[in-house]
Amino acid sequence: MVKINDNFLKLPGNYLFSEIAKKVSIFEKSHKESRLIRLGIGDVTLPIAPAVIEAVHKAVDEMGRKEGFHGYAPDLGYEFLRNVIAEKDYKARNCQINADEIFISDGAKSNSGNIQEIFSIENKIAVCDPVYPVYVDTNVMAGRAGIYQKETERWSDVIYLPCREDNHFIPELPKEAPDLIYLCFPNNPTGSAITKNELQIWVNYANKTGAVIIYDAAYEAYITEEEIPHSIYECEGAQTCAIELKSFSKNAGFTGMRLGYTVIPKELVRGGVALHSLWARRHGTKYNGAPYIIQRAGEAVYTEKGEEQIKKQIAYYMRNANVILEGLKNIGFKVSGGVNAPYIWLKTPDQMTSWQFFDFLLEKANVVGTPGSGFGPGGEGYFRLTGFGTYENTVEAVERIKRSF
Amino acid sequence: MVKINDNFLKLPGNYLFSEIAKKVSIFEKSHKESRLIRLGIGDVTLPIAPAVIEAVHKAVDEMGRKEGFHGYAPDLGYEFLRNVIAEKDYKARNCQINADEIFISDGAKSNSGNIQEIFSIENKIAVCDPVYPVYVDTNVMAGRAGIYQKETERWSDVIYLPCREDNHFIPELPKEAPDLIYLCFPNNPTGSAITKNELQIWVNYANKTGAVIIYDAAYEAYITEEEIPHSIYECEGAQTCAIELKSFSKNAGFTGMRLGYTVIPKELVRGGVALHSLWARRHGTKYNGAPYIIQRAGEAVYTEKGEEQIKKQIAYYMRNANVILEGLKNIGFKVSGGVNAPYIWLKTPDQMTSWQFFDFLLEKANVVGTPGSGFGPGGEGYFRLTGFGTYENTVEAVERIKRSF
């Protein structure tokens, strides 16, 4: 008789965004006249940039011709893409990352979920609180999180790094030493950014304790301030303690295209084993690469035209973020984020819980946001809004919120 | 100090196809004048069908326009694709599979590697010997295979189901009852097919013992004989014991496009839990769907034009398979497969080991094949060739092999 993986049963409720989708779907069925504005899930709304579309059409034509057809991709991804990433995302920033340390994949969600597989289940993880749920849930599924404690809404074997107003949502070093440290900056959900000096403290700490940092830089393209690093490898010594995850979803609007990459420097060795070789084995055994045409799309993101068009999209979303940030400040909300990230993190008014505020906004303003508590107990009493809507909708959403009070 | 997943270190050598790629690359560098013919890795060579190319172009244009843009896909995949799969692959064959029991993904390799995650690591797996290496390797990584025994080249905790000439490469029920049974028919690597009656024995067995069958039907489109089932759900009672994995790689040439699906009937319950709900949770937490344009490509495979064009491609590959089968028979080889599958399975001549024959063919005929021993100890002394080359190359490869003796 087969036994199921009991760890799955420990997970309380559904994956956050599936839960929101369900609630919204129920609301829509009973409120057919309402026009919802969605500033919840971090999905983009602008179409794919023309330079990318052109490159994809070209690649599709190749796939339709005998001499241009591409079958299975090379294990790490196509060189044309890995080379341009190494050049533009790393060498141009004085980060010593080579093309053969880059693994192309279908996105940062898969990568951040799968990366834990190369580590022992005995490791103790540390996560920010609040946090992107995938880091925790995938460790729960693997049996690395211990037991869920209902009272505290925390896992017994997870080290939580509180991100609060009083530390500007930047975590401090923990008392108990973790083995695996998940950091995401610019941060989802709080929209906060970490300075190079602050991040250097974590890199030094990991090198000293032998921990590994899994650094999710999915929102790097939204950085506007000088002192904020675009990659953890801008910090000295990060090559020997950090894995970096990157996504094309948010910089180039690839949420429906699916492309990302993982960087594992060859110098990153633990227990005498290069983590690069473990991930290469995992990648080669369980995955067959991102589609050729999508890898060509990724390449086009780095062309002159591509970069120019994508910068405009990011500016568009950041204008939205600013509309929300300033608009909510004016109504008297306590808000942060929105300067180096497309996310606005707000304190719910009137002592409402996060889900109460979710329901309130849905009912009163027909605006969908994301309850902070969905990102962990430290997010309770907070709420996330995103700049990924259209400008018109964003302006209207702020107006509607204003009118709801 | 972080600890790595030691299970990875138990894996002997590289993933089979990565190993072959390396050997071939070294050979090519020192034999620049040679023109290799690759009948090794199961990669296709014909371009994507025109009906599919047309659909992808259309979808790419949609992605470039505001009103047609698609972001994150629904968790299970787009309904337009799941509906047509349920209709054409199942209902048309009297299999009671609904669209909401189908999960769209990026291919059968990922699915066959990931599906083990929803089961306890205490389960005992059974695999055919020889077998597609992904089933075993991914269970090793999870810690479910025990210890590798060099003398027998077998894992201590894996139940092997010998597939030999004397059972026509169809496994018999094992003495020790497994919990998870991996079956792949039409088979990779042996090219053998299982009849509905033979498969029914396994379904009955799994229902009786509480085991779950993971049925890889990636080569279903190559079936030519009447009594061979296209889906395990053609057998009575399979809904309560079987998960089916399907791929677009081999029927529609999607090896570089990446699309597949997993079927988990809602009736499939173990320990009081529907496996569908576990996989849904895994899918929603660790994966963000196949690209919109690729799902549209999959939809086009089922159009009248698509089906017609794809049938011709399969006929083309099967003609190749026949060329190899008959050609090698004529030289005096012992061969099987090639009738319901694109694979030819041959006994190596002159007592050569599989890798000796690999080197022999590479050196003497400049033909790349796959050593049978790469698929497990039961494959030693065998060799796999595929019908996925061009017709011209296939004819020439057989000629070259003839001349090598």
Structure characteristics:
alpha/beta; 12 helices; 405 residues; globular; homodimer; 7-stranded mixed sheet; 37% helix; 4-stranded antiparallel sheet
Report on the architecture of this protein:
The structure is a homodimer of 405-residue chains. Chain A has 405 residues and is α/β, with parallel strands linked by helices. The first copy, chain A, is built from twelve helices and 17 strands. In chain A, helix 3 packs antiparallel against helix 9 (292-301) and helix 10 packs parallel to helix 12. The longest helix of chain A has 28 residues, at 304-331. Chain A is globular, with a radius of gyration of 21 Å. Chains A and B meet through helix 3, helix 5, helix 6, helix 8 and helix 9 of A and helix 3, helix 5, helix 6, helix 8 and helix 9 of B.
Please outline the helices and strands.
The structure is a homodimer of 405-residue chains.
Chain A: H1 7-10, H2 16-30, E1 37-38, H3 50-63, H4 79-90, E2 102-105, H5 108-114, E3 125-129, H6 133-142, E4 148-149, E5 154-155, E6 159-162, E7 180-184, H7 196-209, E8 212-216, E9 242-247, E10 260-263, E11 269-270, E12 273-274, H8 275-286, H9 292-301, H10 304-331, E13 335-337, E14 343-347, H11 354-365, E15 367-368, E16 370-371, E17 382-386, H12 391-403
